[in-house]
Amino acid sequence: MRRDGLDALLVTNPVDIRYLTGFSGEASYALVTRAQFWVISDFRFQEELAALRGLARVFIRTGEIVGALGEVAGRMGLKAIGFQSEHLAYSTATRIAGSLGVGNMRPTTGILNDLRQIKEESELASIRAAIKIQQDALVATLGQIDAGMTELEVTAVLEYEMKARGSTDPAFGSIVAAGANGSLPHAIPGKAKLKRNSTLLIDWGATVNGYRSDMTRTFTLGKWPPVMREVYEIVLDAHYAGIDAIRPGAIAGEVDAAARKIITDAGYGKEFGHSLGHGIGLNVHEAPGLRAGADTVLEPGMVVTVEPGIYLPGVGGVRIEDDVLVTARGARSLCSLPKDIRWATLT
Predict the structure, then answer these.
(1) Are residues 42 and 174 both part of a single domain?
(2) Prediction pTM value
(3) What is the rounded (10 degree) CA torsion for 331, 175, 288, 283?
(4) Peptide bond before residue 288 is cis, with ω within 30 degrees of 0
């Protein structure tokens, strides 16, 4: 804020408000100055906001939030207020500018994104807890599935097993893709049935204290189709190459390139069309991104996914994904489920 000449930062993204305060109520703003921290909310959240005493001042509005913001800001005589231009809708920004004065409003980008890239120990503890839940839930699910079940039925079992273990909700829409549907990187579970000697791709995650986890494993029920067995080993090699390239000082785009080279050299470069991975935390997709050309320098405390894949339309797909912590000396996968093809063969 000092660097950008701001008297205050208006935080409107609910995820960022939760990051700063632990408060996750809706329709609320935070206003941060160099000396004060305000949360503007409404009657529904009075009790939850009482927990912020000593950290923030709370303004319980009775009218529209823009008017309440103007009242709080007016008390402090703020001249330069930064707002989250990547989040705040243009129409709302215009109304706020009308209330506070057009000259007072300045767009900002990425201030909190940069802070959120580096996870503190409490954040890592929540991510680890989410990973444990999702892994235990998958193991429980694998013992219940068989040929003839639909993708939706498997999804229901998996999400039940996560919630029963303490996940507040799935980290994202779970992906369960049977057979040829696995060639769709973001397949939506439907009524397609699992078949013997055919692949099954599962991309799932849990949520603990708002923090997400994200893993993918690919299986076969019975024997592997020959081409998919070949593809599995290539993707697994690329997965390990990506993890091996992660270390403090590494460039995000170079990590992507290390994994992508394995797949390209094997002749499947065109079948790997998405980025290698992304940051994970309060959002399932956040900074930093591991993609071609990305120039972010990796630092200890960042958590990223490593998820190479090969997708063959009409045949199926293979993706293998772990959540990986950048450490002081290199990288450590936070996931412990096996990845070898023998484990991925369900009999």
Answers:
(1) no
(2) 0.94
(3) -110
(4) yes
